[in-house]
Amino acid sequence: MNAITFLNIVNDIAAELDLAEEMFPLFPKDPVHAAGIVGKEAGELQQAALQFTYERGSLSDMKSEAIQTATMAIRFIANILNMEARPSVQL
After folding, report:
1. How many CB atoms sit inside 10 A of residue 42's CB?
2. pTM greater than 0.90
3. Which of 4-8, 27-31, 86-90 has the lowest mean pLDDT?
4. What confidence tens digit (pLDDT) does each residue in 16-62 have?
């Protein structure tokens, strides 16, 4: 990967991060819910990959989902020092 390609990817993620923080300024303080958001985006990436492979899905959809996954992973990392363990009550 050349430097220009890398910078384009980083710029795409930065733009998505700005949009995500504007639309959803708050981020979960508990790691289970925060990781769930990352997992949701990773699942959508998996779905886009399956659709590309088997259903004539697009490269563009895979790229978009990969950017969203990276964005949520960055939000997770950026907020990690604010996270608190809040175990669920076990029944």
Report:
1. 17
2. yes
3. 86-90
4. 999 999 999 999 999 999 999 999 999 999 999 999 999 999 999 99
Instruction: Write out the two tokens for 42.
Output: 């990773």
Question: Per-residue pLDDT for 86 more than 90?
Answer: no
Residue 66 and residue 10: Cα distance in Å, rounded?
A: 12
Give one DSSP letter per residue of 16-82, joined into a string.
Answer: HHHHHHHH-----SSHHHHHHHHHHHHHHHHHHHHHHHHS---HHHHHHHHHHHHHHHHHHHHTGGG
Return contacts of 21-29, CB within 8 angstroms, 24+ apart.
Answer: 21/75, 27/75, 27/76, 27/79, 29/79, 29/82, 29/83, 29/84, 29/86
